[in-house]
Design a protein that fits this description.
The protein is an alpha+beta fold. It is built from 1 helix and 8 strands, in the order ββββββββα. The strands form 3 sheets. The protein has a 3-stranded antiparallel sheet, with no helix packed on it. Strands 6-7-8 form a 3-stranded antiparallel sheet, with no helix packed on it. A hairpin with a 2-residue loop joins strand 2 and strand 3.
């Protein structure tokens, strides 16, 4: 019988905050920071709230023993439209490469 407990390889810190727009809570963000046993550098897991007009990225930058946390917040406008534009360009390129339906006259 093995009396040894498994040693955890990862510790996780999660902070939560409410995301408000026009005074209404639209989401509860939960960015995280992972601490791996074999790595001295923590790994941040970003919270992403995506929409047609803008994308919101919230990063857990730091935390204190008293329960307070520091966040980095980035708002990137029109990110979805970059993807939509890329799809439109791809479809347009495919259509332009199709052979002409009209027969060639010599």
């Amino acid at each position: 019988m093995n009396d040894k407990m498994p040693v955890p390889t990862k510790a996780e810190v999660t902070a939560t905050m409410d995301v408000e727009k026009d005074g209404k809570v639209i989401a509860t963000a939960a960015p995280k920071r992972d601490f791996y046993k074999n790595n001295e550098q923590p790994v941040s897991r970003v919270y992403n709230l995506s929409g047609l007009k803008e994308d919101l990225y919230i990063i857990l930058a730091g935390f204190q023993d008293d329960g307070s946390a520091t966040f980095k917040v980035h708002v990137n406008p029109l990110v979805k439209w970059l993807w939509i534009g890329g799809i439109v360009i791809g479809v347009g390129t495919f259509i332009a490469m199709l052979p002409d339906r009209r027969g060639r006259k010599s």
